Structures are given as C-alpha cells and as structure tokens.
C-alpha cells in the first residue's frame, strides 16, 4: 500500500541508485569493524517493523502505485483554507465550572467545544443512581437539560462545532442537546460536530454495557437514521480507538482494531437499514497519539489507506472524520513539565498526519483536573503549530518522504493482516469476548514495560535524568466526596416524577428500526428532555427490559511510568520516616578514569528510585573503601571500578563490608564476565550486580524492600 506514484522510477535511474546504495552499505560495514549492520543500525519497533538507517527512492519504487490523495482523507487540500479544530476537552465535573472555563478558552483561541462526559453519564446513569466513583470521575457530570444548558451557557451552538462522546448510547445525551437547541430556537440542521455512541468501545473499556449490545446497536441505528435526515452536520457513530494505545498497544493494533470495529458498525447498522455511505458520513474515529513521531504520522496516513480498501469494498465515497488526542501511556507525574514537550511533538505528528480535530492534553492531566495555566499552554501549542510553525501552508508535507511512505506501507500491510485475523475470529465483538484483543495489547504493554524497566526505552525525568529536588505536583481530583453528594441531592430534587414518553413508542424503539420509528423516538425523547427528564429516565423509558451486557474482560489502562512513580513514592515515604532519602555509598576506586564511568552509571541507576548518593572520595584500597562504606551509615554500598581490577578489589571489599555490617547491601557496578566469576563475587558477599542489561525497576524495588523503604 502506498500513496505515491512511480513515474520517475525508470529502470536506468534505479540501477544507478542500487549501485550507489551498495557502495554506501559496503563503506558503512567497513566502519562497523565486524559489528553486524542489522544489530548496530537497524531498529526494531514494537510493531515488528525494522527501521533502516537510510531510505531512498528504492524503498518507494517497489510500492504499488496509488493516488497520492488517498492518504490525505478529508483534508486532500490540506489546512490552508480550513485548519484543524482546536477541540480541547475541559476536565471539570461541575457544569458551571465547565462553562466558565469553556467561555474563557473560546475567547482565547479554542474553536470547538469538546465535552468529555463522566463515567456515570456515559453509562446512561443519573448522578444519584450511579456509584460514587463514577460521578465526575473522568469528565463533566450531566444528568438533565439544566446541566447541559449550564455547561453551554452563552455558547452559540451554530458558531462552533460541538462534540460529545456519549458513551454506550447517544440518544439520551443527543436529546438534551436537541432540546436545548429547540429551546434556543436553533435548527438542528445548522449544528455541526458530533454526538457519538460507541458501544463496542465502551464494552472494551468497561467490560459491561447498560443493555445488550444488540439493543444499543438499535439505538445507534435510530440516532444515525434521524441525524442523517435532520442533523447531517452531526457525526453519530464513534470508534474510540484511543483505548488501545493508552493501554500500551502499538500502532498496528491501534489501526487493526479500529478498522475491525468500523467494519462491524457498517455491517450491524447495515442490517438495521442504514447504507454504508450513511454510516461513513456520520463516522468519527478517535485516535490517541503515541510518542514515536514518524510512526504516528504514518499511522494516520495508513488509516486512510486502510479506509480506502474498506470504502472500495462497500462502495463508499465519504471519508470519516478523524479526531486525535495526545496519549496517556507515556505521561508522567515525575518531572511533570516534560509532558509539555511530549504533547507538543505528538500534536505535530497528528497535524502532519492530517487529522480533522485535535485535543492536546494539558501537561498536568495525570494529576486530575488541569489548571488555567496548563490549559493555556495546550491551547497555545495549537496556535504555535498553525501560526508560528506554518504547518497549515504546505499541502501534505509528509507525502513523498521515502521514510514516511515506506513506513506507511509497512504499517498498513501489518494492520490489514491483523484485521483479517480478527475477521477470521468472527469479527471485533467475537475477538473482544474471547479476550484475544486484550491479551495481545497486554503482551505489547508488558514488552514496553520491560523496556522501561531495563531503560532500553526512556522517559526523561522518570527512568532517565530524574530530578530528586522537584516539588511534588498537586493532585486535583475532578470530583470530591462533597461534590458527589451535592450532585446526587441536586439531581434527585430536580427529577420529574413522571415521564412523557409513551409506551407505544418505547416498544417501537426496542423492537424495530426504521426512519419513521427513528423520528417518533427522537421526537418523544426530545420532548421528554425539554420537560426535565433525566439521562437515566430517558434510557429506562427506551430500554424498559434492559439486560446489561457483561462477561467481557475490560482492557487494562496503564501508564508506563507507574512502576517508577511507586519507587519514588516509597523513597519519599522513607525520607519522611527517617529524615533523609535512602542513601547509596559509592565506593570509587583509584583514579578518575578507573571509576568515573561506572560511578556516573550508578548515580543514574539508583536516582531513578529516589536514592541519594554519597560519592565524595575515591579510594586506593578495598579496605579503605569498605571502612568508609560502613562509616557512612548508608544501607547500600556500590563498588565502582573496572573489570580488570575487580578480581583483586571486589572480594576484599565485599568481605570487609559484610564482616563489619552484614545488613549492608553490597552491589557491584558491572556484569561479571562469566558465571564462574559471578559466583565468586556472590560467595564473597555481593548481593547483586548493576549493568545495562539489568532490570532497574525490579532491582531497586527489591533493595527498597530489603532496607525497609
């Protein structure tokens, strides 16, 4: 799969290029002095793609010719006339607080409304009927029209796109928005944005749904049928693939699962009377953006190539809208300001990949509700990209890059193969219920975690170059127990005692799907919402015999830095208890050249766990170093010298330390050359060895446990 053409790839020109590449390769291999080219210069990605050190026209010449616009999707002409939407989410639970922040942000550059609802609302539960942990937990708490009206107070519904990810079912939330529009005299056909439902995504994320998947697919079909006639500017079908990357998945899994879910919606909604073109016209895909800059550019381009194959199969002419948000997996609580750099590069890769809308997460999102400053920084990144970096000027700046085109092709091929494997399992839902998708992502996440643990993958400020003097960031939970109690009381007081949705209409909604039924159900729900019906009442009326879907293992969301954050928290707790951080005595032996490399390595190794170094002097003899180690009072002593000097120094040092103070953990900086030497050092008293292949986090956790941290 490729988005390039091969017009300039004549046999003569390619033969010359092959000869030049062969000469270059020969020169490089000579310089490597016997080290294999693939081992030294080729990088293997979590997607199983081998990244080469050099890409040329040879890499794209062999790709099948394809219209270059295929990878651009709905932005075939670029951003010159229509920039991407600055669709910033606002993580505030109270409608009034949300509105104040939204108005401030809209007046300072934001050009779209993006509402992230709390878990209760996404599950169609009212604030007083949901578990306390779900109310305001991850977004705005909305239970009825007055809540949405307060959240969107003084926001002109036709002036900016309005996006709401409604969760398992969209009709209750959509009814509130449409009732608000009617209340304000706004024609629904003039509203642009989205009110999407993604029952497949909710099932994957939570392992349960408020009614059967089949029933919620009926809801989605009803809502899409109604919107296609009455609100064509609203997307209704959501595919939220951010879950996979945030769970530690890779770009191939991200793409494959997205395509699988999309195809399943086309099929299921097709059974319920919608054409594939109608589904595509109301489809909005949400990706998370990972930290691998070029891989993410290629991911967005590859998605459009994959979509082109789906579109060809179903005779679809419309491209779906693509939304992106910066990912969560690589965001850290430690050295939290580094997150600003992470989201900036991620945002740039999404823009270069041609997304339609973008949320750049505030750098302190991991602490709960971002503050005004962090929200401003994120808005300003949009402005910098558009106005200062001028990425809106070139049309498809990534197109034609040998590296990106080749990477796009490889990514698309692997994702298509993974998608076909899902199809062989019976489709997305079958694979989800079997647990194969969750297992695959968990395996990828574990491999990434192992790379972090061994520092083959770095997170600056966390497992590389930690700042032990930083102040702890302030946690700002979206919802306090007091807020949850107040919300529950407020909603309970406002809820009307009776509902105005007729049972006859309810029966139609559950048992049939057609344009007429869609019109009846939407009209009834909008009317009820206008009269004060709550989300929970609307859902109960349209699902009188709800049978919750269960039995699916939810995808486990993790952040890569959590293990290291636990180490630092344990070290902080130790410091509070003992008046100082756990200390490491660094026994530097001989002159600087003899010990410096490993002393620096030791400092970097242990500081990731919150340890403080004692490394003032260098010593001439093992006995002197051992005496100083014992006198320091440090619970851990690390010997730093060279492999050549260790056979003489190491046993003497360890024996002397253990004889004086057996509880001291004695560590050797370096990996013994063979098992025999390692056994000798262990017998002398060394507890462990630190080196570039060591599991840093695991070793530090064991040491902390041993010394009582």
Helical element count? Answer: 28
Unreliable spans: 3-7, 503-511
CATH architecture of the domain at 562-707: 3-Layer(aba) Sandwich
**Number of distinct beta strands:** 16
Please report which band the strand proportion falls in: under 5%, 5-15%, 15-25%, 25-35%, 35-45% or over 45%. 5-15%
Tell me the name of the CATH homologous superfamily of the domain at 562-707: Cobalamin-binding domain
Rg from C-alpha positions?
A: 29 Å
List the strand order in the largest sheet: 3-10-9-8-7-6-5-4
Shape: globular
Percent helix range: 40-55%
**Highest-level CATH class of the domain at 562-707:** Alpha Beta
Termini separation comes to 54 Å
**Overall pLDDT, averaged?**
93
Keywords: Cobalamin, Cobalt, Isomerase
Protein name: Methylmalonyl-CoA mutase
Cofactor: adenosylcob(III)alamin
Family: Belongs to the methylmalonyl-CoA mutase family.
Features:
globular, MeMalonylCoA_mutase_a/b_cat, Cbl-dep_enz_cat, cobalt, metal ion binding, alpha/beta, disordered N terminus
Outline the structure in words.
The chain is α/β, with parallel strands linked by helices and 709 residues long. Among the domains are: 11-61, no CATH class; 562-707, Cobalamin-binding domain (Rossmann fold, 3-Layer(aba) Sandwich), CATH 3.40.50. The strands form three sheets. It has an eight-stranded parallel sheet with strand order 3-10-9-8-7-6-5-4. Helix 14 links the parallel strand 9 (321-326) and strand 10 (357-359). The longest helix is centred in the middle third of the chain and has 23 residues, at 402-424. It is globular and about 90 Å long. The chain starts with 10 loop residues before the first helix and ends with a helix. Residues 44-541 form the Methylmalonyl-CoA mutase alpha/beta chain catalytic domain.
């Amino acid at each position: 799969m490729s988005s390039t053409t091969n017009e300039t790839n004549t046999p003569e020109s390619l033969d010359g290029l092959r000869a030049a590449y062969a000469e270059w390769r020969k020169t490089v291999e000579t310089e490597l002095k016997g080290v294999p080219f693939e081992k030294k210069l080729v990088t293997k990605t979590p997607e199983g793609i081998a990244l080469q050190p050099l890409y040329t026209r040879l890499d794209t010449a062999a790709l099948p010719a394809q219209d270059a616009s295929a990878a651009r999707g709905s932005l075939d002409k670029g951003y010159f006339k229509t920039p991407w939407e600055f669709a910033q989410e606002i993580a505030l639970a109270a409608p009034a607080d949300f509105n104040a922040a939204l108005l401030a942000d809209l007046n300072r550059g934001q050009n779209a409304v993006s509402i992230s609802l709390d878990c209760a609302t996404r599950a169609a539960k009212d604030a007083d009927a949901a578990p306390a942990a779900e109310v305001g937990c991850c977004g705005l708490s909305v239970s009825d029209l007055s809540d949405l009206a307060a959240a969107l107070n003084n926001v002109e519904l036709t002036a900016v796109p309005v996006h709401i990810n409604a969760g398992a079912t969209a009709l209750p939330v959509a009814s509130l928005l449409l009732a608000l529009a009617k209340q304000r005299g706004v024609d629904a056909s003039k509203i642009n944005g989205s009110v999407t439902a993604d029952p497949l995504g909710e099932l994957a994320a939570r392992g349960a749904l408020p009614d059967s998947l089949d029933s919620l697919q009926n809801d989605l079909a009803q809502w899409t049928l109604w919107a296609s006639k009455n609100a064509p500017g609203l997307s209704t079908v959501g595919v939220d693939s951010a879950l996979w990357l945030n769970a530690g998945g890779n770009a191939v899994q991200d793409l494959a699962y997205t395509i699988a879910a999309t195809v399943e919606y086309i099929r299921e909604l097709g059974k319920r009377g919608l054409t594939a073109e109608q589904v595509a016209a109301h489809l909005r895909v949400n990706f998370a953006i990972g930290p691998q800059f070029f891989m993410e550019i290629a991911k967005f381009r590859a998605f459009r190539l994959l979509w082109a194959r789906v579109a060809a199969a179903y005779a679809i002419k419309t491209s779906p809208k693509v939304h992106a948000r910066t990912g969560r997996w690589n965001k850290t609580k430690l050295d939290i300001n580094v997150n600003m750099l992470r989201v900036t590069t991620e945002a740039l890769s999404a823009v270069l990949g041609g997304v339609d809308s973008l949320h750049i997460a505030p750098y302190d999102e991991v602490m709960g509700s971002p503050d005004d400053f962090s929200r401003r920084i994120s808005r300003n990144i949009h402005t910098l990209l558009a106005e200062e970096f001028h990425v809106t000027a070139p049309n498809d700046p990534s197109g034609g890059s040998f590296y990106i085109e080749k990477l796009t092709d490889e990514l698309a091929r692997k994702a298509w193969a993974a998608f076909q494997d899902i199809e062989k399992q019976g489709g997305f839902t079958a694979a989800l219920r079997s647990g194969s998708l969750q297992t695959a992502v968990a395996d990828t996440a574990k491999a990434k975690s192992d790379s972090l643990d061994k520092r083959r993958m770095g997170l600056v400020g966390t497992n590389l170059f930690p700042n032990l003097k930083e102040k702890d960031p302030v946690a700002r939970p979206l919802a306090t127990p007091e807020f949850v109690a107040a919300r529950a009381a407020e909603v309970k007081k406002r809820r009307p005692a009776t509902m105005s949705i007729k049972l006859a209409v309810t029966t139609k909604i559950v048992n049939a799907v057609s344009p007429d039924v869609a019109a009846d159900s939407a009209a009834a729900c909008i009317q009820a919402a206008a009269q004060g019906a709550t989300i929970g009442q609307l859902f109960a009326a349209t699902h009188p015999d709800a049978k919750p879907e269960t039995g699916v293992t939810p995808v486990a969301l993790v952040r890569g830095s959590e293990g290291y954050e636990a180490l630092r928290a344990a070290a902080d707790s130790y410091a509070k208890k003992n008046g100082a951080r756990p200390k490491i005595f660094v026994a530097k032996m001989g002159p600087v050249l003899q010990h410096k490399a490993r002393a620096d390595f030791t400092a970097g190794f242990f500081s990731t766990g919150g340890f403080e170094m004692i490394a003032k002097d260098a010593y001439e003899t093992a006995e002197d170093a051992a005496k100083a180690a014992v006198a320091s009072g440090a619970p851990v002593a690390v010997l730093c010298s060279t492999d050549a000097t260790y056979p003489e120094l190491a046993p003497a040092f360890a024996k002397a330390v253990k004889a004086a103070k057996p509880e001291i953990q004695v560590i050797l900086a370096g990996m013994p050359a063979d098992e025999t030497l390692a056994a000798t050092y262990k017998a002398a008293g060394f507890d462990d060895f630190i080196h570039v292949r060591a599991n840093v986090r695991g070793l530090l956790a064991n040491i902390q446990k041993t010394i009582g941290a």
